[in-house]
Amino acid sequence: MGIESNLGIVTTCLDKIVNWARKNSLWPMTFGLACCALEMMVTVSARHDIARFGAEVYRGSPRQADLLIVPGTLTKKMLPMVLRLYEQMPEPKWVIAYGNCACTGGVFRTYSVVQGIDLYIPVDVYMAGCPPKPESLLTAIIKLREKIDKESLKDRR
Ligand code: SF4
C-alpha cells in the first residue's frame, strides 16, 4: 500500500471524527431580522427541542458562532452589519437562509430589500416559507448536518 493511499485512509478517518463533532455541536448566532426570527426562537422550546441536534446554544458573539441563520427580511441598510457579523465568525462556518425573504427577497420586490442573501455570502441550506414553521428550521439543520458529514478537511479553506 502506497503512502498516498495511507494518507487517504488517515484523512477519511479524521474527516469522520471531525465531521461527527462539528455536526453535533452547531453553535448558531443569536440574530434575527424580521417575522421569521420569531419562528426560529420557538425551536429552542421543549416542543421542538433543537437540542436533539446539538444546536441549542445560541451564541451572543459571532466569534463563538459557526452557524448564521438569516431569518427574515434583509434591508440594504442592515446589509453591512450582517456582512460584518459573518466576517467575524471563524471558519468553519455555515449559513441557512431561513424564509422567502432571506432566500429571494420574498414579497418585497423593492429597491431597499436585498433580493437574496446569497448575492453577498455563500448559503449552505435554503428554507422557503413565509414564514417557514419551526419544524422547517429543524429540517434545514438536518440537511446541514448531512452536508457537513460529506465535507473533507482537505477541501476546507
Ligand atoms: S418570509 Fe414572510 S414571515 Fe419571513 S420575514 Fe419575510 S415576510 Fe416575514
Helices and strands, with pairings:
Layout: H1 3-23, H2 35-42, E1 67-71, H3 79-88, E2 94-98, H4 100-104, E3 125-127, H5 134-149
Helix pairs in contact: 1-5
Iron/sulfur cluster (SF4) is lined by residues 34-36, 72-73, 99-101, 106-107, 130-131.
Concise description?
This protein has five helices and three strands. With 157 residues, the protein is mainly alpha-helical.
Give average pLDDT, whole number. Answer: 92
Strand content: 5-15%
Bound molecule types: iron/sulfur cluster
What is the CATH third-level topology name? Rossmann fold
Instruction: Describe the global form.
Output: globular
Oligomer: single chain
Helix content: 25-40%
E-strand count: 3
How many domain regions? 1
EC number: 7.1.1.-
Family: In the central section; belongs to the complex I 30 kDa subunit family.
Membrane topology: Peripheral membrane protein
InterPro entries: NADH_UbQ_OxRdtase-like_20kDa, NADH_UQ_OxRdtase_20Kd_su
Descriptive account of the structure:
The protein has 157 residues and is mainly alpha-helical. The protein has a single domain (27-142), classed as Rossmann fold. The chain has helices at 3-23, 35-42, 79-88, 100-104, 134-149; strands at residues 67-71, 94-98, 125-127. It has a three-stranded parallel β-sheet. Helix 3 (79-88) links the parallel strand 1 and strand 2. Helix 1 runs antiparallel to helix 5 (134-149). It is globular, with a radius of gyration of 17 Å. The two termini are 29 Å apart. Bound molecules: iron/sulfur cluster. Residues 34-36, 72-73, 99-101, 106-107, 130-131 line the site of iron/sulfur cluster (SF4).
